[in-house]
Amino acid sequence: MEIIKYPDKKQLQQLLERPYSSNQKVRSTVKNIIKQVRDNGDKALLELAKKFDNSPAMRNLQVTEQEIKAAANQVSPKMKENIALA
Predict the structure, then answer these.
(1) How confident is the model at residue 20, as a pLDDT?
(2) What is the pTM of this model?
(3) In 3D, which of 28, 58, 64 has the Cα closest to residue 43?
């Protein structure tokens, strides 16, 4: 990762530009992903997670009660308050 401090206007403009991607290519990719999930359900989700997220092999998508509690314990009380207000 490159850290850029105090870029000039030209450099800032280049940094803020979003890469162009053909909308048709994105639509085609998303359509294919949705079809895979509709046709193959959880199996497709697991394969796609491995492909796109570079995640370790998962056996299922169900989150255990213990995992939920462990995750909840990592959230600060202030954040929980903010979530409740939202």
Answers:
(1) 74
(2) 0.49
(3) 58
